[in-house]
Amino acid sequence: MGSKKRESSSMKESVVEELGQLKKDIDSVVEDAASKPLIKRMKKEKKKTDTEMIPDSDIQNHTNGVSTSSNGPKASLNSMERRKHRKVLAKVKIGANTKKIEAATEKMDIDSKDDSSNENNESAGTSNSSGGGVLPEFHIGVFKNLAAADVSVREAAAISLVKELRAVQKAYEKLANKDEVEDKSKLEAEKDDGLNNCAPSLRYAVRRLIRGLSSSRECARQGFALGLASLLSTVTSIKLESLLKLIVSLLEVTSNMKGQEAKDCLLGRLFAYGALARSEKLAEEWKSDNTTLLIKEFTGCLIALAAKKRYLQESAVATILEMIEKLPIEAVSNHVLEAPGFKEWFEGATEIGNPDALLLALKMQEKFNLDYKFGKLLPSPYSKNAFFSADHLSQIASCLKESTFCQPRVHSIWPVLVNNLLPDTVQDADSASGQISIKKHKKSRKVSSAEEDMERNLRCFSEVTVEGSLLTSSHDRKKLSFDVLQLLLPKLPASCVSVVLSYKIVQCLMDILSTKDSWLYKVAQHFLKELSEWLANDDDRRVEVIVALQKHSNGKFDCITRSKTVKDLMSDFKTQKGCLDFIKNLVTMFLDEGHSSDEPSDQSQTTDDNSEIGSIEDKGALVTQGTSEFLKSWIIESLPSVSKHLKLDKDAQFHVQKDVLKFLAVQGLFSSSLGTEVTSFELGEMFKWPKSAIPNALRQMCIEQLQQLLANAQKGEGPHAVVSGVEANDLGSYFMRFLGILRNIPSVSLSRALDADDEEAFKKLQATESQLLKEERNSGLSTDANKLHALRYLLIQLLLQIMLRPGEFFEAASELVICCKKAFGSSDILESSGEDEPDGDDAPALMDVLVDTMLSMLPQSTAPMRSAIEQVFKYFCDEITDDGLLRMLRVIKKDLKPARHHNMDSEDDEDDAEDDLLGLEEAEESDVEETGETADSDEQTDDSEAVIGVDAVTAQLPVADGDDSDDESDDEGMNDDEMFRMDSKLAEIFREKKNQAGGETAHSQLVLFKLRVLSLLEIYLHQNPGKPQVLKVFSNLAQTFANPQTTEGSEQLSQRIWGIIQKKIFKAKEHPRDESVELPVLEPLLEKYLKLAAKPFKRKKSAANPSKKKQSASWNRHKMLNSLAQSSIFWILKIIDSRNFPQTELQKVCDIFQNALVAYFDSKKSQMKCEFLKETFKRRPWIGRHLFGFLLEKCGSAKSQFRQVEALDLVTEILKSQLSSAADISSADVSKKMLKTHLPKLCHLIKHLVSNMPEKQTRRADVRKFCGKVFQILKTFELDASFLKSLEPEGHTACESQLGDVFLALKK
User: Fold this and answer.
1) Three-state secondary-structure class, residue 899
2) What is the 8-class DSSP label of residue 1053?
3) Could you give the angle at which helices 1170-1179 and 1181-1197 cross, rounded to 10 degrees?
4) Residues 429, 361: contact at Cβ < 8 Å?
5) Beta strand pairing status for 748-750 and 670-672?
6) CA-based radius of gyration for the chain
7) Which residue stretches does the UniProt record annotate as biased composition, category Acidic residues (predicted)?
């Protein structure tokens, strides 16, 4: 046993010696290769394979051959060839030795396993020296894990590396004879590396860690730097001087290195110095010897390294900063600042533009407050105010501009500058100062002084650095300017937003965002996104940002950038305080006329084509008055929208609306004769006007927005919300009170002088509104209160309309006052003169006067006034008379064009009367442009809307005496004089309006008027769906839609009428079923719409080759008319069914259908759809029963087989409807009786069909299908025997031959 142990031990010793020798050879080759210039080692795969397969003998021979040839004079090689041979030799030798090591290792592992039980694992992980010393094993595989991409793997590898090497070094230090271990170690390194006190494994690891820092594989630099830093911080035997020499020698950059190879070495040195600085080795060196020169040497190496390449500077500075964090101030002053090249580096920084030198100087000054001259980088003596002065920022501008080399990353100098500009303590100065008590005046003054210094420094930084240096330079620097602004945002107080978002910044933003192809477009978009997120939950910031954007863009930011940035910001206020602050800022901006003069004018950005795109429209001459007027117009338009989008409680919203109302009323309605400020003692407020007179266009905008504000308030109230307990929240009553108070101030007058008529109407409206308010408060929550409330708001809107259009509304105002008195007669209502209040039997009804008055105001009214009219009409439409309704319908039917001549050659002369009534004559296509106005839009202004003399159009139209369903035309009931007066008045009004700005055509003006009247009719139909008058409205609207001359040129008008008919009439939950709806009224309508449903499509004879677009339009119109006719028939039949007329009275209805079917079967021109007839019979089975016999006759006598097959379908549908109704016993008896009555005709039809089968197979199949269905129904009603009995013998024979099993089954 002992001999075996000795043999095993000797074998292991020999293997260890052999491995050590091989390792020494490998290390020597590797060290030689590392000490020489690194060359790209790229070889072909074939050459690699051949080299690895060379045996040892060949290697020796090759070595001898090379050496021999190298010494021979005849075979001398040049330097390039010698270098090549040396590389091949090194490659071959390394490969051969590696194989030997692997074989020896495998053998040793096998022996170790055999002796493990006897050796107690003593030999595992150890290597023996000749002196008997034992060192722990160091696993070199750990280096592989140091380069892993996973951070946790790298950290574990570094821990394992340090742990093993510490154990090796500790064991090594305990050895008595260290030389023998070094001589025979398998991991021995060179003797002249300066690491004499380190174990061989440690020396090898240090050298390999330094070399590995130059590798670009995965995360090798990070991992090896981590390992080196950890090792240096735990193993104290590694000398700093030796380490610095090793870094320089192992990572030396020679002249032969180029490109990536040189870059790898430079980065390796940078990482090596970084690991050294992080390991605190330098601080330990200073503690042991404060006169050491190694700190100067280390700093000098870093400065020299930073000077080699620009991309090394920032990291080199970071390394120096990490070093000085661990050094005392004495070491920094005596060693770091005295390092070679340090002073020269600072002095030349401003000339070449070195942001890293500036960063180092700032950080060192902040930490140590040194009395050191950093060139021109820092002021002397240093202070933040001096550093951020305009002169000093101009000196370091070149350094800051050059910081763009690290794009897209932001250089480290900028966060440092931002922290100096906006320290955390000053950021909360606003909130902090609010908590300071009155006694602490000194502290308050300090906070105020700090805020002033911060704002002054920020302003200088913004003007000199951002605007003066970056914004005026390249695209990269423009991008950097926005990056810097984003760094400022988190710490920026709301009061300093105007400093950062300056005129030049906003103009630059608009320039970039106005062109989507711009390289900086996404940068600007990202900045706006960050800005929006920054102010999302802070209304103070929101106010400042909106004001800055609009002030510096003259109110055109959204227009020029084609975005909704400002609009979205304005619609998202969260608090009442934020809204009030915003209103206050806008008012201040409106009154301050000098704000725009402080900024330079830039015509390229304010007068381009994009400046007119956006929410501000139809300004006309206003835009030409300058950008300040445009900004004021934006302010006026924006104020009502603030309160519109608020999501606050009623009281808070009302408070905001009051502030807006006061501003609009003061600037739009009043002017001061004594200066620009007036104080109202009753209201306890001071009111201001701009120093220069407000243009009339802006005053009109104020009045229009005031109308819009009141309209929004009325809508927001919902159903009558103003009762005696909450009258304070009635914005209308507050406005009238405010108006009365300001009119009583002697130095305040209306901005526009009124003539006698307007002045009288103005006073009447004021007095009437006041009395109606009292009546409303006394009415509680009754229906009258809603009517009074709606009338009050109409009076207020009319009062403002008088200010907008003097001389046009005083008559309407007087009539409306009379209507108020008649509707709510009370002793409190003001008395009217006799001329205003006609009495007697000839006096018109109240609702007729009210309707005429509202119609007369509609054409010239603004959208808010139309909304008030609609509200009044909504509450009073239940009382409207037939005359008033007809007046409205005549406006819809009115046509300005002369009647076109009918084609007298038509074959349908007998239908001309009905076609004339429905307006079905075809007309040529019109090329008139369609108007874009929507009648029910409450948001748009009406400066460009047409004005029509409704007094002439409607008031002079006589009321028709008869029903509108007769054959009278639109203008019947008007004599020649009335028509002449109306046409003359219309011509005069249209001529006048054509000369005004905007000049629409007479046709478009009438279309606008019709759209507004349609809105009233829609309200009427919604409020009164089951009244008999609905039938009258329907017939007139259908006639208007069918007549091409009343809707021609306005697709919008057609679609509006179509929508009202479909939604408010056909699909309404109720329909007219009153006893006043007589059958004689419905029958003519039914007959006309049946003819319309059968009317064929006619092509235009006036156009030989009409365009496809016109043909398509004509065809679409024909389909819509056909759909209208069918829906109308269904609706009329629905009304007839609901009235439960007796069968005798319904005979006329069946006759009308029969006449339509006669034309359907006998005339090819009839285009009535079979599906429509089938649907009619399905919905109304009683019509099918009446027409069953007639259809049986027509099935056999139809002129064409096509019509015959369609007639069979109709008969089948009637039979199905009778079968479905047979579930009820009484209905089953009626159906059976009907079939039994018409059984002979049915037998005759079956015989005729089977005896004269059609030629086409499909039609023969239809006949067989029809017969089979008839036989099935006859069986159901047990009439099969009667049928067979009535069928003639010839019919039996024909049925058996043509129908076969179907007929035989009936027989059985």
Assistant:
1) coil
2) H
3) 140
4) no
5) antiparallel
6) 51
7) 921-945, 961-976
Contact indicator for 326, 281 with CB cutoff of 8 Å: no
| Both tokens assigned to 895 | 């046509």
Q: How far is CA 569 from the centre of its chain?
A: 13
Distance between CA 1171 and CA 756 in Å, rounded? Answer: 68
DSSP string covering 239-284: -HHHHHHHHHHHT---TT--THHHHHHHHHHHHHHHHHHHTTHHHH
Contact 766, 741 (CB under 8 A): no
3-state DSSP call for residue 449? helix
The alpha carbon of 128 is separated from its chain's Cα centroid by a whole number of angstroms, namely: 76
Distance CA 836, CA 817 (A): 9
Rounded-to-integer distance, Cα 1076 and Cα 1139, Å:
10
Cβ–Cβ under 8 Å, residues 19 and 105: yes
Amino acid at the residue 742: L
Distance, CA of 501 to chain centre? 24
CA–CA separation, 1016 and 871 (whole Å) = 10
* Residues pairing with 677 in the sheet: 688
- Asked if 682 contacts 741 with a C-beta cutoff of 8 angstroms, the reply is yes
pLDDT, tens digit (0-9, with 9 covering 90-100), for 328-361: 888 888 888 888 888 888 888 888 889 999 999 9
Per-residue model confidence (pLDDT) at position 934: 37
Question: 208 with 141: CB under 8 angstroms?
Answer: no
CA pair distance 1195, 1175, nearest whole angstrom: 19
Q: Is the pLDDT of residue 72 over 60?
A: no
For residue 921, what are the contacts with CB-CB under 8 A and spacing of at least 6? 900, 902, 903, 915, 1044
The helix (run of H) or strand (run of E) holding residue 128 is strand 126-128
133, 177 Cβ separation under 8 angstroms: yes
Buried b (16+ CB within 10 A) or exposed e, 883-914: bbbbbbbbbbbbbbeeeeeeeeeeebeebeeb
Length of the chain: 1308
Residue 80 identity (one-letter amino acid): M
Q: Where are the alpha helices (DSSP H) in 461-595?
A: 475-488, 497-500, 503-513, 521-534, 539-551, 557-561, 565-570, 576-591
Residue 680: φ, ψ to 5°: -100, 115
Q: How far is CA 800 from the centre of its chain?
A: 37
* CB-based contact 558:566 (threshold 8 Å): yes
- For the stretch 705-745, pLDDT in tens is 999 999 988 887 655 444 444 445 889 999 999 999 999 99
Q: Is 386:392 a contact under the CB 8 Å cutoff? A: yes
Torsion angle (degrees, nearest 10) of CA 262, 267, 269, 275: -170
CB of 1306 closer than 8 Å to CB of 1274: yes
Q: Where are the alpha helices (DSSP H) in 1198-1288?
A: 1201-1220, 1225-1237, 1239-1251, 1257-1276, 1280-1286
Tell me if 713 sits within 8 A of 864, measured CB to CB.
Answer: no
Q: Residues 6 or more apart from 447 whose CB is under 8 A from it?
A: 429, 432, 433, 436
Using alpha carbons only, what angle is made at residue 375 by residues 369 and 381, rounded to the nearest 5 degrees? Answer: 40
Report the distance separating Cα 521 and Cα 509, nearest Å: 9
Residues 842/808, Cβ–Cβ less than 8 Å: no
What is this structure's pTM? Answer: 0.69
Cα gap 9→2, rounded to integer Å:
10
Supply the DSSP symbol for 334: I
Report which DSSP code applies to 620: G
